[in-house]
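Much of our argument rests on the idea that a fold can be written as discrete symbols. The amino acid sequence and the backbone structure tokens for this protein are reproduced below:

___
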Amino acid sequence: MKIKNLIWYWIGNRLEWIWPFRFFRFLKPGIDIVGRKSVACIEGYPRSGNTYVYATVTLMTSEATEIAHHLHCSAQLKEAIRLRVPTLFVARAPSECIASYIVREQIPIRRAIVQYLRLYRFVFAHREHLTVIDFNKAMSDGDFLRSSIIGVIPS
């Protein structure tokens, strides 16, 4: 198992700390941490269509728009809620995203399942502050995805 995955999990999902990720982002391009300047946050469990939704949002907004994305943990969601940043959470069936995550990252099944459950428990507990969009609907219906984005994120 990659040590990065274990550290990422403990800091982001167990401890729900956002501050260490502000340092990690310099080491890991492709993520952006939510902050006061963020106009939106896009999150989901790994392998849940986060990149697709993020790409769609960036096409619909200006280049200067700051969008937090790809942290895949409850710390990011917790901070977005605290800062009142509009947040889209991409939800995908566990049998699909967990299997894909295990293969891609070579992590133990148990760790992947625990990570999924912890993230989704957080989402469920805070669902009134998040816009949860279905992965299958977002991938198959561009109008649904665009209307979900327009309803949450200022263009």
